[in-house]
Every structure is written in structure tokens, then in C-alpha cells.
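The instructor's notes for this session suggest beginning with a concrete chain rather than abstract definitions. Hand out the sequence below and ask the class to guess, before any prediction is shown, which regions might be ordered.
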Amino acid sequence: MQSGEAAFLKPGVFERGFNRLFARLLSFGIGLSHNYLLEVRGRRSGQTLQTPVNLLEAGGRRYLVCPRGRSQWVRNAEASGRVVLCRGFRHCAYGVRPVPDSVKPALLKLYLDRFKPTVQRFFPVPGGAPAEAFAPFAGRYPVFELLPQPARPAAGEPSEG
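After discussion, reveal the predicted structure:
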């Protein structure tokens, strides 16, 4: 595999168990300020799937980075064009827009610098490296800008428009 190709680093048994436990804590509102439970509709099953994520905020914008590569949540987000971030009883829907590889190095650097203890193992570049060091690897890491979606009216309520 070339350095720029996207792949997926499958989690081990321990990581899957930890992610389930952490997702449960996030559903109760327990976690750091950047930790969210991501909900996305399965592209095949149609069921809502959940996974914990680190939300990157930069320049007044929100981003999701998948340090493992083209995971199932990435593929589902690409297919549906929509995700929901949850913590406790709070749920916020977003559209997703893929970030081009040319813009990713600065975001990947910021992501690694902020979340180094939990994500360094997924990056061939050490934390603190300049953004240019991420350029050869940008294609490995899906990055989405989150676009706020208008609230949907509840059943029976008239929609605006």
C-alpha cells in the first residue's frame, strides 16, 4: 500500500470492548468536552449505529477525523451525508462535507497535537511535527467538516418554508 492510500486499522477485542463501555458513558453525558457519541445510519442495514469520536474544533468550524482510516462510520457518513453528535440527552444533526487532501495536513496536525495520548499510534508522524509532514499521508485519513442542519419539525408540526 502506498503512503497516501486510505485503509482501515481494525480495532482489537480490548478496543472494541472499551469503545462499547465509553459509548455507554457518553450516552449518559460522561466524557471530556471533545468526546461525543457519533450516530450514523447504516448504509446497508438502515439501523442507527454509534461510535465514540473526538470532535476537532478549529477556526470556528467542527471536524471529524477518523485516525483508523476508512472505517464503517466513515463509509456510512459518506453514503448518508448526515451524522448526529450526542452526549447525554443532547443530539445535534450535521451534514458532512469531505475535506480535500490539500487542506488535511493542518487539520491532522491539530488533531494529533490535541489528542496525542489516544491517537498517536495511528499516525506515522510524531506529535508536534509541522503540518507539511502530514501531506504524504493525508489520503489515509478521512476528515469531514460538519455543517449544522436545521432542526426537523416534530411529527404533526407544520414545517417552515
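Then share the key points. The domain at 13-99+138-148 is CATH 2.30.110.10 (Pnp Oxidase; Chain A). The chain has three helices and six strands.
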